[in-house]
């Protein structure tokens, strides 16, 4: 593997160079990050503490919230701190670590969304076989495979990043480290690496969206045979999933399935799926899910008397 030590640090340009706008970025994204942490941790604690949220659907929702928390934490704190810094320096090793974390948690989120779609497909289309197919052992194995697959994907991405030689240019026109902005700094022909990037990340995003959309079309088609009440409940759950799928995969497809061309909206699209989506997911799943809201209320009622007695 080609090693290069001529560049030990990069300088991030961030979202804006205007001091007033940088303060706005600090306030806005601090609120978003705090909301992401609180929302996802609340779902994690609720699912772990509740006796009613024991189905495979909530098992997968637990991991989606965990991944959203980790995904946002790998990007947002750095963006928040940098918004108040005159010179946004990120060391080479830290930059490579961020590339790895970004792709690990992004791929894991997509994998969990696919598993959630699988769970809904079995529950709605094969209800009699649901307890047999979606056993806890099966769900655990699926989650482990999702982590392994995401790790392999992240290793592939970081391997491409580590092979890039840098010959002095270290100004990254972005707020985080990713392969696309790094490709522009490399002193080599990056056509082959970009093809590998598109065939890896781009193919994963696009194929995942196709799989998910086909699965939900099949699910929605099969709802014709259900009762009105069952149809309403299934539609509510599936609608939440479809919204999250579009919010998660839409920006990824825009970023990773095209030639190495820069568009003015690239940064904002990346902001949306690295910070906006982890913030919105807890809201979507709690506001549209009566069982989660009920479990949260019960948990809150238990905690308040316990604290007041002390």
TrEMBL record:
InterPro entries to which the protein is assigned, alphabetical = GPCR_Rhodpsn, GPCR_Rhodpsn_7TM, Olfact_rcpt, Olfactory_Receptors
G-protein coupled receptors family 1 profile domain mapped to chain residues: 39-285
Q: Which Pfam families match?
A: 7tm_4
**Listed GO MF terms:** G protein-coupled receptor activity; olfactory receptor activity
UniProt keyword annotations, A-Z: Cell membrane, G-protein coupled receptor, Membrane, Olfaction, Receptor, Sensory transduction, Transducer, Transmembrane, Transmembrane helix
Q: Where does this polypeptide localize? A: Cell membrane
Primary localization = membrane
Q: Name one GO cellular component term.
A: plasma membrane
Question: What membrane topology does the annotation report for this chain?
Answer: Multi-pass membrane protein
Transmembrane stretches in the record are 24-45, 57-80, 100-118, 138-156, 201-223, 235-256, 268-287
Which family does the record assign?
Belongs to the G-protein coupled receptor 1 family.
Stated role: Putative odorant or sperm cell receptor.
Could you tell me what this protein is called? Olfactory receptor
Organism, scientific name: Ailuropoda melanoleuca (Giant panda)
